[in-house]
Structure formats: structure tokens, C-alpha cells
Amino acid sequence: MKKLILLFSHNMTDEQKEDAKVSFGVEEFISLPNNLQIIWSNIPASLENLSDYLQPIRDYLIDNIESGDMVLVQGDFGATCAMASFVKSIEGEAIYATTKRNVEEKEIDGKIIKTSVFKHVRFRKF
């Protein structure tokens, strides 16, 4: 059974889940345990090096990924690059989501309010 481990800070949309199923044959979606999600979602900007900080997530992936499984990796730029490379080194496939941004402008009480709406387009492999 092909798994997609979610290494990102958002919830997947139904559209993203369907795309992963159709495009990659994903059958199971696995969120990080809460303690690891906190680590991934709160990467300190003050750290010079992320290696030790990310080790618990690497350990989790080593224990839970099988050859051909996928990991959706998105977040802090440096952490994302490091973890995408790591996933590939343990025979997983690292992917990321692409979106289209639509900007809507409304005038409310004489002020222009801009809202960005992001829509899933596809996944890409790293």
C-alpha cells in the first residue's frame, strides 16, 4: 500500500488527496505525530544549523517509510531542501504541491482590501 507522509503545516484539501490518489496511486495519508508536527511547524529562525533540530523527524521517516512511499515536503526553505534530499536518500519520493494564486480586490469603507486565494494545481517531484 503506497503511503503519503505529510511533512507540512497545513491540512490537505480533498482536491489534493484526490490528485495524490490519481497521479501517484497513494492509498494512505499519514500525518506526523503531534510532537513532530510541532517541531516542523515551528522551526526557529535563530538556528544556524537545522541538522540536530530535524533529527527526530528523520528518525520517524526511517522507521515509517518503505521504498516507493512518498513524503509531501513543504515549509521552511532550508528544512524543506534538507528533508527532500533525505527522503530520496532512504528510497522515498519527495513531492511538493503547486498552486495558482488568484488575487481579489474589494473596496470596503474607502479602503482597498486584497485577498489571495490559492488553488491546488498539481504535485511535483523534487
3D architecture notes:
- This protein is α/β, with parallel strands linked by helices and 126 residues long.
- It has one domain (3-125).
- The chain has 4 helices and 5 strands.
- The protein has helices at 14-24, 34-41, 51-64, 77-89; strands spanning 3-7, 28-31, 70-73, 93-108, 111-125.
- A 5-stranded mixed β-sheet has the order 2-1-3-4-5.
Assembly annotation = single chain
Summed over residues and divided by their number, the pLDDT gives a mean of 95
State the low-pLDDT regions, or none.
none
**Helix percent band:** 25-40%
Query: How many separate structural domains?
Result: 1
Write down the overall geometry: globular
CA-CA gap between termini: 22 Å
Which H/E pattern describes the elements?
A: EHEHHEHEE
Helix count from the secondary structure assignment: 4
What is the strand content? 25-35%
CA-based gyration radius? 17 Å
**Main sheet record:** 5 strands, mixed
Number of strands: 5
Report strand order across the widest sheet: 2-1-3-4-5
Instruction: Quickly give the structural class.
Output: alpha/beta
